[in-house]
Amino acid sequence: xxxxxxxxxxxxxxxxxxxxxxxxxxxxxxxxxxxxxxxxxxxxxxxxxxxxxxxxxxxxxxxxxxxxxxxxxxxxxxxxxxxxxxxx
Length: 88
Prior knowledge:
2 helices, 3-stranded parallel beta sheet, alpha/beta, globular, two-stranded antiparallel sheet
């Protein structure tokens, strides 16, 4: 089972920078955001591609993530019954 990291913000920096770093480090990333189209878009596909541009252009696929609407989704669904999300 992979460790889980929650990142607040599923925009370009959240997905393309922070999410990519966490994915490379072996984390299952949970994106939390309040923008419905971002959450719906992430939940509609099992992966997304990060494209680096420039002289060393490259593409990298990010998968094994979840996306929740932090305005309405509670608790965070998990694959393990031992973990639960509770308000701080």
